[in-house]
Recover the amino acids of this structure.
């Protein structure tokens, strides 16, 4: 089942940056890469729940601000030797508008 | 169509080149590899531990057969796959069994051949070299059927072979031509100590003995020497040296002298053909250790990838003997001549010997016997060519005796496996050793990634490096100038230099101009580059907030649960009832959980939601307060004591001077955090002697101290100089800060920086040279004009970066 929700415009997120969507249960971090691709993952690092939205975005990855784990934005998986995974949400941009699929 | 790259010689240098190439240009070539040994690529260095029974062949594989397949590399390995012809016109290579491959570029990495002394009988059964897995198999077989082995050659390789055979219960004799063992790595004192300890282990020696003939009927049964004496033996291992394996190249008409001649980009005289490893001769030198070969590999890969940067300019090498229980290290010119001086420490009883050779106040050679833990440090000093005048009195005792002691004195070998090495992440020595051996790690970065050791505060980096070294038994991955990160081969210095000379004013420009390997970098290089461009071009470079750590983007310190702290500036540690009232009001209004008196003489508010930060800042701004930059790689605090105003011992007005210094320096960005203090007298209540810049007031004026550090590794300051007036204090302070800002590596605090570049250099620049001091101070003041705006105000009411603090959407 999909449940697409418009969340805002692409230009509201800086390149290599991120913004947060708050829902009743958790926050979703929405990222914009250097090539204007958009990804959304649950804003909780698999390590100790650090806010990935506050990390540094590089390539299609984000580095968590708390202890430097690097998480793939495509899969939500921790990269390298670290192990763990955070939820991924489908995201798309149409006419400059970002939507994410809350599932 | 992809170009074809063919590599001849499936060994350490060649495969390292291929691996480096795959990292930076994975899809550029169709790669074919020829090797005449029937294996993947293995770590030849570790044949010694295999022989000694400490490791198995499987454990020393670097690239297994399936690895080649996974990486789409065509491997021709084993019998018949030895290349015996290169046709440079048709651009093909042909192997013994007739396999032909075409190439667009060719890489020759055929290594070297052991030298076999051509005495009568050298071709008898049971006379071998020590070079490859086959030789090790032969030796191991011999241990089962025979009793006595003789090693000809008392060098590094010969002694490792001898030790290995002895581990299997064989009687071993080492025959050596001169009177010092390992004479190419050791002086005569340490050579004798080595011989003594090996004799104690049961090894026999025949020194100054020249082999004349190998006797035996089919199989070897003895050796005759030139002086007419002889010994019996069942096996002879010749370990008398190696010769670059260059016949193939010579036959193909490539220019060879003692090795295949290459230039600084690892090209032979035929520009389509590259060569790396023991087979090459570069600037007149040949090498027989992996460290330089790996450096060649890096440069070669870079040119194969057509990035066209990086030159190989030759290497200084160091050696270690891989015999358990014997610690020896040597590097550089350890014999010396009339232009050098020596420092020697010898304690024959406990088997310690240390000799350092100095030339023009630089370390040029070292021999360590018995205790080698300082080897890496000496080697680093040699390669960096650092002036050691400041270290002179402590040099011989080693790095652990310097101020920056940290965990100094620990001896890796004596450390038990459950000793905690990394206090931040709770990693013990055993975990690190385990990861290095089971995951096949070579570098500090890899160890960090796999174990987290030294990945946080970094204070245990030196220890981890030592463990890496002692576990690998060789020192082959301490690059001369460490690259900033994996995105580049360039060091901090090279990047800063390029930013200045090529006038690069943005991170993008640097990446483009210096051929970055990744599209948009990683956190490490982005934060460094953002700082470097702004520090070099303060009035032109634009800040890139996305390349700053969250604290500097949010101007508050992120906490474990995602909340933030707020610490307003209290100039010189002074406050007023009005300020205190405003803080109390804020604390009540926003239901601040904790109010803490910080270690920096101010008040911290903890547990604040990010969204309300701008509102809090507005309230504080209204009461005249600004950011304390407690979150930044920036000037933090100026601690002061009450001084002459109140204290019966005070000599000057330390509080007022502290406030002036804080007004001068606040809001400046630094390579790392930067703290100041002013004490009113040498009782030093403001702890000025563990600050980055500390002032101790004395009756005659002011003592200026630099390079202190509380925190992880405590370091007391060095005295910079004495001055008479407050104006001078300000000028020296500005100049010192600016010199530090323009010279230090990003994330290098003043304490390690002072130790790296040396106090005398700083005194020469900031104290002795008035022109330079004024220049740096002026640059500092100029940069401060632009920098001194309150970032809180800019965000609370100035409309800067509103997106940083608000959610993009709230779904109920
Ligand atoms: C707030 C404070 C503790 C307190 O409540 O008293 C503090 C809090 C933190 N310190 Fe500190 N340090 C504080 C005074 C100190 C002092 C004492 C001083 O300044 O006199 C030291 C030792 C002196 C020194 O720096 O030489 C100190 C040495 C460190 C270090 C080790 C630095 C080093 O070079 O060894 C770190 C780690 C780092 O910076 O990488 C650190 C890091 C931190 C961080 C920023 C950790 C982090 O990255 O999140 C802490 C933030 C907590 C938070 O939630 O805001 N803190 N920290 C103090 C703030 C002072 C201020 O008013 O700005
Ligand atoms: C026992 C031992 C211990 C050592 N210990 C240390 C140490 O502690 N520290 C250190 O730094 N160094 C050490 N070394 C030296 C180090 O192993 C070498 O410097 C390094 O392996 C050389 O790498 P290379 O790629 O140039 O040559 P090699 O690794 O020898 O690779 C060359 C390969 O090419 C193959 N080949 C040659 N000609 C052809 C051809 N025509 N066609 C196909 N294949 C061909 C060879 O068979 C070989 O497999 C040690 C060496 C030995 C033998
Ligand atoms: S000492 Fe500093 S860094 Fe460590 S927990 Fe306390 S505040 Fe945090
Ligand atoms: S919480 Fe993300 S790295 Fe620790």
């Amino acid at each position: 089942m999909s449940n697409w929700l418009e969340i805002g415009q692409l230009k509201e997120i800086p390149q290599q940056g991120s913004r947060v969507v708050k829902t009743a249960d958790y926050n979703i971090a929405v990222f914009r890469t250097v090539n204007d691709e958009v990804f959304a993952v649950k804003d909780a690092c698999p390590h100790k729940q650090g806010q990935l939205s506050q990390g540094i975005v590089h390539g299609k990855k984000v580095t968590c601000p708390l202890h430097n784990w690097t998480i793939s934005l495509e899969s939500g998986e921790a990269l390298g030797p670290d192990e763990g995974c955070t939820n991924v949400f489908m995201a798309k941009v149409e006419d400059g508008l970002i939507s994410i699929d809350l599932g | 169509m992809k170009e074809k790259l063919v590599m001849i010689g499936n060994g350490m240098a060649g495969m390292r080149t291929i691996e480096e190439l795959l990292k930076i240009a994975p899809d550029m070539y169709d790669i074919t590899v020829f090797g005449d040994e029937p294996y993947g690529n293995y770590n030849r260095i570790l044949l010694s531990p295999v022989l000694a029974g400490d490791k198995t062949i499987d454990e020393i594989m670097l690239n297994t057969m399936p690895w080649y397949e996974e990486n789409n590399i065509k491997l021709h390995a084993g019998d018949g796959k030895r290349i015996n012809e290169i046709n440079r016109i048709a651009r093909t290579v042909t192997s013994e069994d007739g396999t032909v491959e075409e190439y667009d570029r060719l890489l020759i990495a055929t290594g070297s051949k052991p030298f076999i002394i051509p005495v009568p009988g050298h071709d008898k059964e049971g006379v071998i070299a020590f070079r490859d897995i086959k030789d090790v198999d032969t030796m191991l077989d011999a241990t089962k059927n025979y009793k006595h082995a003789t090693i000809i050659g008392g060098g590094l390789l010969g002694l490792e072979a001898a030790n290995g055979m002895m581990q299997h219960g064989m009687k071993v004799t080492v025959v050596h031509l001169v009177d010092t063992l390992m004479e190419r790595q050791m002086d005569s004192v340490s050579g004798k100590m080595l011989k003594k300890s090996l004799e104690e282990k049961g090894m026999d020696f025949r020194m100054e003995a020249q082999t004349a003939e190998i006797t035996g009927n089919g199989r070897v049964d003895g050796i005759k020497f030139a002086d007419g004496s002889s010994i019996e033996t069942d096996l002879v291992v010749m370990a008398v040296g190696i010769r670059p394996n260059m016949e193939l190249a010579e036959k193909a008409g490539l220019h060879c002298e003692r090795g295949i001649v290459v230039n600084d980009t690892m090209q032979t005289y035929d520009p389509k053909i590259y060569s790396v490893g023991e087979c090459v001769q570069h600037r007149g030198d040949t090498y027989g250790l992996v460290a330089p070969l790996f450096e060649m590999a890096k440069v070669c890969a870079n040119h194969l990838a057509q990035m066209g940067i990086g030159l190989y300019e030759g290497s200084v090498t160091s050696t270690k003997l891989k015999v358990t229980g014997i610690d020896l290290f040597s590097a550089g010119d350890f014999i010396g001549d009339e232009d050098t001086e020596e420092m020697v420490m010898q304690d024959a009883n406990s088997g310690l010997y240390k000799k350092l050779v100095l030339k023009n106040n630089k370390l040029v050679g070292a021999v360590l016997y018995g205790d080698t833990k300082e080897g890496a440090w000496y080697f680093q000093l040699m390669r960096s060519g650092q002036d050691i005048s400041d270290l002179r009195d402590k040099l011989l005792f080693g790095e652990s005796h310097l101020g920056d002691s940290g965990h100094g004195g620990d001896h890796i070998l004596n450390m038990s496996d459950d000793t905690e090495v990394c206090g931040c992440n709770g990693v013990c020595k055993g975990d690190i050793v385990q990861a290095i051996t089971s995951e096949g790690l070579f570098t500090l970065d890899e160890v960090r990634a796999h174990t987290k050791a030294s990945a946080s505060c970094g204070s245990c980096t030196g220890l981890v490096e030592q463990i890496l070294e002692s576990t690998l038994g060789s020192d082959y991955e301490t690059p001369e100038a460490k690259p900033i990160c994996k995105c580049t081969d360039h060091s901090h210095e090279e990047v800063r230099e390029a930013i200045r000379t090529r006038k690069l004013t943005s991170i993008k420009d640097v990446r483009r101009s210096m051929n970055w390997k990744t599209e948009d970098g990683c956190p490490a290089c982005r934060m460094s580059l953002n700082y470097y461009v702004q520090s070099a071009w303060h009035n032109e470079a634009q800040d890139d907030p996305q390349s700053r750590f969250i604290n500097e983007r949010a101007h508050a310190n992120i906490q474990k649960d995602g909340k933030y702290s707020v610490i307003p500036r209290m100039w010189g540690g002074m406050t007023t009832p009005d300020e205190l009232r405003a803080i109390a009001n804020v604390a009540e209004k926003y239901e601040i959980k904790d109010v803490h008196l910080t270690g920096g003489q101010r008040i911290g508010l903890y547990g604040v939601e990010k969204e309300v930060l701008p509102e809090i800042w507005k309230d504080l701004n209204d009461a005249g307060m600004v950011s304390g930059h407690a979150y930044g790689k920036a000037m933090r605090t100026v601690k002061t004591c009450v001084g002459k105003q109140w204290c019966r011992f005070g000599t000057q007005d330390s509080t007022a001077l502290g406030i002036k210094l804080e007004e001068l320096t606040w809001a400046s960005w630094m390579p790392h955090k930067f703290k100041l203090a002013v004490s009113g007298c040498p009782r030093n209540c403001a702890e000025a002697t563990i600050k980055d810049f500390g002032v101790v007031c004395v009756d005659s004026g002011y003592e200026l101290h630099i390079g202190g550090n509380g925190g992880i590794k405590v370091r007391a300051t060095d005295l910079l100089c004495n001055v008479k007036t407050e104006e001078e204090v300000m000028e020296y302070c500005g100049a010192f800060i600016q010199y530090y800002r323009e010279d230090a590596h990003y994330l290098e605090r003043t304490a390690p920086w002072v130790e790296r570049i040396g106090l005398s250099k700083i005194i020469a620049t900031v104290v002795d040279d008035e022109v330079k001091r004024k220049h740096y101070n002026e640059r500092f003041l100029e940069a401060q004009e632009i920098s001194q705006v309150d970032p809180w105000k800019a965000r609370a009411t100035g409309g800067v970066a509103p997106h940083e603090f608000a959610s993009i959407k709230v779904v109920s």
Notes: Chain B touches chain A at residues 449-450, 455-456, 518-523, 526-527, 545-547, 549-550, 554, 558, 560, 562, 803, 807-812 (CB under 8 Å). Residues 91 and 542 of chain B are 51 Å apart (CA to CA).
